[in-house]
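USER:
Try writing one entry.

ASSISTANT:
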Amino acid sequence: MLITEPLSYRLALPADYPEASAALVLDSPHSGTAYPPDFASSAPLGALRTAEDTWVDDLWGDAVSMGVPLIAASFPRAYIDANRSVEEIDPQLLDQPWPEPLPESPKVKLGKGLVWRMLDDGTPLYDRKLSVDEVRHRIDACWKPYHARLGQLIDAAHARHGKVWHINCHSMPSVAGAYATDKPGLVHPDFVLGDRDGSTSDPAFREFVAAWLAERGYDVTVNDPYKGVELVRAFGQPSQGRHSLQVEINRKLYMDETSLRPTANYAKLKSDLRDLTAALLDWTRTQLG
């Protein structure tokens, strides 16, 4: 069953949801490809699309038939980033001061706050300033419904099983862009798992996934260079049986990073992620006792 919220998300639910749903929830916050007309970016579409986690929701999509709900953003990351705090506003983008105090944010300093100022290669997104009302519209129409629906899915799984495991699904370029992170030019491994140094999940979740992937020949790092950002921070509460893990997949494993087209290895990676999901479902059942 597919449920959509205009501008915000598309939600794939198992046919027998919630009766036989798993204690696992997946979300893909950067898979959106519907560019709203009010975006009015000065960057070309081809450049904007490099910010997308292209194909990530499809790569994990077999999980739905296995009883796992999967929510994916409809809006593009360059329009508003669901994996940022609603307070990570970039004052350089605005035509007037934001009415509330803004905390310091390393992502904002990189130009990658709630609303991006530039792409990974430094390409500016706008030749104009944004109004406060524009940013608030994006928050209300896109960010808030996405966070609310993901929260409902996680709460429902927790209520049903007493515990819940959440995977926040992402992709990363094979090499970090000049303005992408604080480690420009870094050659990325196949997978990076992030739980904010164990603060968003029992480390056993992370270690199970890392070991499973390593056994299949993938190069995996943990909390380096990506520890996880807003979504795992917001929903991961291991002391309450709520475990959130960010999973970054290297795009070179499945697509041409210039054309964004799937490569010959796409089917293998998708099959491996299906097998990982099956293994995780077995593992979570043992954790439920």
User: Anything to note?
Assistant: The mean pLDDT is 95. The two ends are 29 Å apart (CA to CA).
